Amino acid sequence: MPKKTTSAKSNPLEKYFRQPKIYLKLPSGGTFYPEGTLDLPENGEVPVYPMTAKDELTFKTPDALINGQATVEVIKSCVPNIKDPWSMPSIDMDAILIGIRLATYGEQMTISVKVPETGADRDMEVDLRILLDKLIVAKYNDTVFHGNMEIKVKPLSYSEFTKNALKTFEEQKIYGLVNDKTIPDEQKMDLFSKSFIRLTQLTVDMVAGSIISIKVDGETVTDSKMINEFINKAEKEFYQVILDHITKQRDEFAIKPLKATTTEEEQAKGAPKEFDVPITFDSSNFFA
Questions:
Q1: Residue 49 pLDDT more than 70?
Q2: How far is residue 79's CA from residue 46's CA, in Å, rounded to a whole number?
Q3: What is the pLDDT of residue 63?
Q4: Stretch 245-265: mean pLDDT, rounded?
Q5: What phi and psi values does residue 178 have, to the nearest 5 degrees?
Q6: What is the mean pLDDT of residues 272-287?
Q7: How many Cα atoms sit within 13 Å of 193 on the Cβ side?
């Protein structure tokens, strides 16, 4: 007697699963993603889902936040079209985080600020749509000209950005030893000197890693080892031109500080009429 085939029973709760709340145009336009790491719809907008309870718990894990793993896991969950968030260009990061928070909690975000001079705490409402719109219209300029050279550059991937930030943080901790009276001055100087050299090399490596190609004398060099060798042996002016361009492009995709005004009472206590409020996305302000 033939066996009866049974089909998997569908979950009756499936229609209540979370749905995309917004559709996000990536600031990068989908460029700089390695092949297979991004499924970009024809309209150029990726669906963004609200966070689950698991996502919130992931974002509250300190170690995972420091090394970037928490951010990667939440992006995989909330923006599944980005198959490998580690490979994502870092210029998309702030827009994606804003999109996830907007999809989860809505358009308004409350941040706590300190009024200069008075030290008074104040809550300030931020419209995430305005922040997002400014990031989306930014344009990345991937070409630099220096003398007879044409240099193509790219933003750091999220993996490169995270590793660079962690290494820089570790090296900068050395400077905290300046107040440690148990360490002899000679040893401090040795530690500072070595740390300074490593930090300098980190910046040089970051610049070299951002260069895709150098076209000169009718030839185009794309070999990363050759480019790295050139960066380490080129005149300082070339290095500085590339570093300045990379820094300018990074700033184009950074969230600009907001302006806050003070009351007459606060001004009477020494506060300025206006002050800048930096906007960052971390565990302290990401959740409603």
A1: yes
A2: 7
A3: 65
A4: 90
A5: -60, -30
A6: 77
A7: 6
Taking alpha carbons only, the member of 111, 121, 96 closest to residue 27 is 96
What whole-number distance in Å separates Cα of residue 288 and Cα of residue 267?
A: 31
Q: Three-state DSSP class for 86?
A: helix
pLDDT at 288: 59
Rounded distance, CA 69 to CA 61, Å? 10
Continuous segment of H or E residues that includes residue 274: strand 274-277
Residues in contact with 179: Cβ distance below 8 Å, sequence separation at least 6, in sequence order: none
The residue assigned the tokens 């409020």 is 277
Crossing angle, helix 185-210 and helix 158-172, to 10 degrees?
170
19-29: per-residue pLDDT in tens?
999 999 999 99
Element housing 235 (H / E): none
Which pLDDT score, from 0 to 100, does residue 43 have?
93
First to last CA, the chain: 60
Among candidates 86, 77, 19, 16, which has minimal Cα distance to 51?
77
Stated length of the chain: 288
> Pairing state of beta strands 143-146 and 45-48?
unpaired
Q: Tens digits of per-residue pLDDT, 94-128? A: 999 999 999 999 999 888 888 988 888 888 889 99
| The pLDDT value given to residue 106 | 93
Residue 91's nearest CA partner among 206, 250, 282 is 250
The pLDDT score that the predictor gives to residue 73 is 92
Does pLDDT of 3 surpass 80?
no
Beta-bridge partners for 29: none
Residue 58's identity, in one-letter code, is T
Q: What are phi and psi of 206, to 5 degrees?
A: -65, -45
Tokens of 201: 């090399």
What is the identity of the amino acid at 134? K
